[in-house]
Design a protein that fits this description.
With 85 residues, this protein is α+β, with helices and mostly antiparallel strands. The protein has one domain. It has 4 helices and 4 strands. A 4-stranded mixed β-sheet has the order 1-2-3-4, with helices on one face.
């Protein structure tokens, strides 16, 4: 399960729970990038959740950086922006 909690307009805490284990993340996201990906059609929290679903399809939760800006996902996975839109 993926839980997303908004700290402020640009910072979010994310917890990924799988069976008996959990990992926490600190994620930042700029408004411009959020608009580019969603056009405001979904909430920031929904975009972050979808982004983690995308990541977890490709790597275990332990491999995901603990702190990152959502923009960097496309550095590792060039298909991210196209698939997430």
């Amino acid at each position: 399960m993926i839980f997303v909690k908004k700290k402020n307009d640009k910072q979010f805490m994310v917890r990924v729970k799988e069976e008996d284990t959990a990992k926490d993340y600190s994620v930042t996201m700029d408004d411009d990038y959020y608009q580019k990906l969603t056009g405001g059609k979904i909430t920031k929290e929904e975009l972050i959740k979808k982004s983690f679903e995308f990541l977890l399809e490709r790597e275990p939760k332990e491999s995901i950086l603990s702190r990152f800006n959502i923009k960097i996902i496309s550095n590792y996975f060039p298909e991210y922006e196209k698939e997430i839109k």
